[in-house]
């Protein structure tokens, strides 16, 4: 049976299938990106795709560029949990797991991942909605189930967003060096959401930071504004011009405001800056 996408599960429904605690959550409205001609911008060239993925496409008939409409993902302790909405051929997905040395029991398929000690597991939630996990547990997909959240999460309107627990900013050494002075203060917050979407001919990156108190929000907004001004002055002192197509140009364009316990940051983003970021060339 070839399943078509179900529109009954919206973004909030999909996210609530994911583990809620101490987890970074990501949502991508792939259908909206595809309609705007932006999927290739985010995904990169087909020539850069991993051989394992190309083989998966050939054997299952599933290609996220054309068959995926939305994905909600959770990242915790190195494990990845995803709820995918799109077009799936369950028969071919089952056959793929078995051909890879895995098994399918009670609609749950599991197989060894390419990395040692990692497993891939998935099951159909309903027509056109698939649960998938890449984790240390053989059936990590059992962690994906409906209505795990006590309160429905507030969702940004942008087609791409990530919500990050504050503790994840305690160590930002793996991120581009230019972002450290902006991200480190976020470790003292109660949670951060970054969202990006089209804004006229460009894009706009928006951050919402929830702080412990209105005073903490005012202090954070002042600190981020001061950091932005300092970076701008350093660039001028070096007789350079901020380049809107690279990370430094994006960072110096930020503006910050606060209201009650929330700080909002906004950065205009050029297409070239997104290309650099998604290709790993941003510094």
* Unreliable segments of 5+ consecutive residues: 1-7
Number of strands: 14
Structural domains: how many: 2
Order of helices and strands: EHEHHHHEEEHEEEEEHEEHHEEH
Q: Mind describing the biggest β-sheet?
A: 12 strands, antiparallel
> What is the end-to-end distance?
46 Å
Overall 3D form? globular
Describe the structure.
It is a single chain. By secondary structure, the protein is an alpha+beta fold. It folds into 2 domains: 142 residues, no CATH class; 119 residues, no CATH class. The chain is built from 10 helices and 14 strands. The strands form 2 sheets. The chain has a 12-stranded antiparallel sheet. A hairpin with a 2-residue loop joins strand 8 and strand 9. The longest helix is centred in the last third of the chain and has 24 residues. The N and C termini lie far apart (46 Å).
Summarize the structure.
The chain has 283 residues and is of the alpha+beta class. The protein is 29% helix and 30% strand.
For the structure shown, list the relevant keywords.
283 residues, alpha+beta, 2 domains, twelve-stranded antiparallel sheet, two-stranded antiparallel ribbon, 14 strands
């Amino acid at each position: 049976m070839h399943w078509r996408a179900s529109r009954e599960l919206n973004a909030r429904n999909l996210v609530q299938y994911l583990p809620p605690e101490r987890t970074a959550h990501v949502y991508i409205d792939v259908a909206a990106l595809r309609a705007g001609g932006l999927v290739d911008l985010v995904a990169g060239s087909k020539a850069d795709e991993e051989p394992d993925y190309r083989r998966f496409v050939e054997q299952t008939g599933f290609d996220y560029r054309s068959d995926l409409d939305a994905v909600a993902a959770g990242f915790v302790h190195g494990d990845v949990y995803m709820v995918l909405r799109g077009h799936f051929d369950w028969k071919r997905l089952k056959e793929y797991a078995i051909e890879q040395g895995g098994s399918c029991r009670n609609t749950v398929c599991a197989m060894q991942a390419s990395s040692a000690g990692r497993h891939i597991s998935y099951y159909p939630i309903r027509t056109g909605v698939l649960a998938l996990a890449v984790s240390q547990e053989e059936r990590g997909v059992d962690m994906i189930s409906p209505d795990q959240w006590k309160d429905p999460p507030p969702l940004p309107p942008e087609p791409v967003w990530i919500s990050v627990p504050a503790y994840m900013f305690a160590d930002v050494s793996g991120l581009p060096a230019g972002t450290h002075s902006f991200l480190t203060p976020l470790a003292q917050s109660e949670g951060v959401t970054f969202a990006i979407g089209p804004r006229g001919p460009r894009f706009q990156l928006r951050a919402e930071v929830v702080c412990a108190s209105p005073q903490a929000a005012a202090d954070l907004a002042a600190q981020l504004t001061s950091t932005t001004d300092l970076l701008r002055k350093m660039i001028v002192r070096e007789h350079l011009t901020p380049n809107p197509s690279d990370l430094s140009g994006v960072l110096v364009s930020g503006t910050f405001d606060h209201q009650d316990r929330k700080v909002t940051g906004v950065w205009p983003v050029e297409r070239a800056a997104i290309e650099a970021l998604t290709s790993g060339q941003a510094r």
